[in-house]
Design brief:
This protein has 240 residues and is of the alpha/beta class. The chain is 39% helix and 18% strand. α7 packs parallel to α8. The protein binds zinc ion. The site of zinc ion has 5 residues, from β1.
């Protein structure tokens, strides 16, 4: 085979390869019913509410794990727009260090305060991702799902119906660059779509530029890629 023919064969091979990769990358896997449990922690109501329209543009439902003794206007607005209000203690305390009285004040009594205003708190996120097996057992009498904060775990969605669920941060501070963020998001989305009925928990705090935020463009990148691949965004309650 002379050099010219070899060159043409190589060009055809490379072109087919790139077409294959492109098609794979944009393939819709919506029949696989995979999903992302996207959450925002602490209390950043203004930043969150400012992005409600962005969520709507990609049909994204999120869970806001808030710190408050009673429901705020933000809670009612978020629920009206299809999101979930989860709980994260009244004033962001490490629950492994609380006395019994403090635990009642920080975690248990607020459940009734929210319920009396029509909001059922059924998902709890541990501040600092800090928990014990004893606390899991105790708090599962009050909540359906307890969320941790330190592992990226793709699990079957049935596992969200009760118990402890891990979750992974998409805060800016955890990624070296936009490229690093996008690479890791794409690897994760691929893992999701190759495991039917799988879900993964992701969380951030505010939306913006700080280390404890997720950049607006990064968030929109996640929304767009997930939409392209047919991956849905669920609230925790949707899977309980
Ligand atoms: Zn927190």
């Amino acid at each position: 085979m002379n050099k010219k023919v070899a060159g043409v064969v190589l060009a055809v091979f490379l072109a087919s390869f790139f077409v294959f990769v492109f098609v794979q990358f944009h393939r819709d896997y919506s029949d696989r019913e995979c999903g992302i449990l996207l959450a925002f922690d602490d209390y950043n109501a203004i930043s969150w509410a400012d992005h409600f329209d962005l969520f709507d543009a990609y049909d994204v439902k999120a869970t806001f794990f808030i710190n408050s003794y009673t429901p705020t206007d933000f809670c009612f607005e978020a629920i009206d727009r299809g999101h979930e209000i989860g709980f994260h203690t009244a004033s962001h305390t490490d629950v492994t260090e609380l006395t019994e009285e403090e635990l009642l004040d920080q975690v248990i009594y607020p459940i009734e305060a929210f319920r009396s205003q029509g909001i059922e708190l059924t998902t709890f996120a541990y501040p600092y991702g800090s928990y014990t097996e004893e606390l899991n057992e105790r708090l599962l009498r009050y909540f359906k799902v307890l969320r941790g904060a330190y592992a990226c775990e793709v699990v079957d969605r049935e596992q969200m119906r009760g118990g402890f669920a891990e979750s992974f941060s998409i805060d800016n501070g955890n990624y070296r660059s936009d490229w690093d963020y996008k690479r890791r998001i794409n690897i994760l989305l691929w893992e999701l779509v190759h495991n039917k009925n799988s879900v993964v928990g992701l969380y951030s705090h505010a939306i913006g530029d700080g280390d404890w935020c997720v950049g607006e463009e990064r968030l929109e990148y996640l929304f767009r890629r997930a939409n392209e691949m047919g991956i849905r965004f669920y609230t925790y309650q949707e899977l309980q």
